[in-house]
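User: For documentation purposes, I need each entry recorded in a consistent format: the amino acid sequence on its own, followed directly by the corresponding C-alpha cells. There are two entries in this batch. Please keep commentary to a minimum and don't merge the entries.

Assistant: Recorded as requested. Entry 1:
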Amino acid sequence: MTTIEHLAILLLIAAVVAMAARRMKVPYTVGLVLAGIGLALLPFKPQIALTRDLIYFVILPPLVYEAALYIEWPALRRDLSLVTVLATAGLLLSAAVTATAMHALVGWPWACRPICRSGPTSSA
C-alpha cells in the first residue's frame, strides 16, 4: 500500500469516528484519541512519518475548525479573563518545562539567548 492509500484509510476511519462521536454525543477529539489508541494496539500499522507539515497542515486545521464550530460563545465571554490568564500561564509553563526537559534529557541547546548577550543581528 502506498502512503496515499494509508491516508485514505485513516481519513475513512476519522469519518466513521466523527459519525460515531456525534451519535454517542461525545466530542470528536475524544473519539479520535480513542480511535488512535485502538489503531496503535493493532499488529499492523501504516508507515506514515509524523512530520511538522502533516501536523500543522493536515491534522490541526480540522480540529481547530471543529472546535470553533461548537464553541459556546456566552460561556467563553463570561470566562474570558480566566481563560486568558490560564492560557498564557499554561503556555509559558509548558514551554519552560518542555525546553528544560529537552535540554536535560536530550542535550538540545537552549533555543534563545538573552538579547543583551546576543548582540546585534541582521536578517540579510
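Entry 2:
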Amino acid sequence: MSTRQIPISSTISTQCIPDWIVGQRNPQDYIDAQSFTGTYTGPAYGNEISGTTVTPLTSGQTSLDVDFGANEITGDITFAEVAINIEVTSNAITDNTFNSSNVNVNNNGGSGNVNGAFFGDEAQAVGGSFDATASDSTRYIGIFGGTR
C-alpha cells in the first residue's frame, strides 16, 4: 500500500485538508431526557502533519463510551500509526454536541480537541473531528464516526 505525501506551502493552511461529516443531528429534547450509557464504534480518517509533510493515517477505528446520565465521554480514535486517547471528560455533552480537550497522543502526553455531535432520532450515531498534537509537535487531524 502506498501513502501520499503532500507538501504544505506557506500559502496553504493545514486546516484545508478535506475531511468533513454531514448528517441530521439528534433532537435536543431526546438527549436531555437520556440517562443511558453506550459505546459507539466505527471508522476514522485522518492525516499526520510532520513539518511540511502530510501523510494519510491508515486503519482508523473509533470507540467512544458515552454516559448521558453523568454527561461524560471517554474513548480512543486509533490508527496503525497513532492513538488519540480521550480521557474521561465530565460535562462534555452540551445540547446535542460534545467536546473534550482532555486528549493525549499514544497515552504519552500531547494535547488536542475532539468535537462531535449525535445523529439520528435516537442518538444512534456519532460523528466529529479531532485535532491533536503529540509531545514531539507532530499534528494529527481528521474525522470519526460510529454507531451504537
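Summary note for entry 2:
The chain is about 5% helix and 50% strand.
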